[in-house]
Amino acid sequence: MENYELINNTDEKQYEFHVGKYLAKIEYIKTDTGEIYLTHTEVPTALEGQGIGSQLVEKVLTDIENNQLRLIPLCPFVAGYIKKHPDWRRIVIRAVNL
């Protein structure tokens, strides 16, 4: 699988992968107090089953950690990824139950 470049599109409030003519994205809400809510993940149907969504989540979580933000994963896809990779719970706000 290709290694895609993560783009943080702050104007649209979403992380993005540009894959050919397609756009895979995770939408977010960021607070002034250091929390980030991941609200929606979208991978075009033509790209499904290729691991692009998982790679996107992994890179987004790495970016969140590198920026020392606290995560609230509202998106079921992101929450499911964290359940499968529990080491990422380290950046989830403690009060959040996955």
TrEMBL record:
Superkingdom, taxonomy of origin: Bacteria
Under the heading Pfam families, the entry gives: Acetyltransf_CG
Q: Which residues form the N-acetyltransferase domain?
A: 7-93
PROSITE patterns given in the database record: GNAT_YJDJ
| Protein name according to UniProt | N-acetyltransferase domain-containing protein
The organism encoding this protein is Dysgonomonas macrotermitis
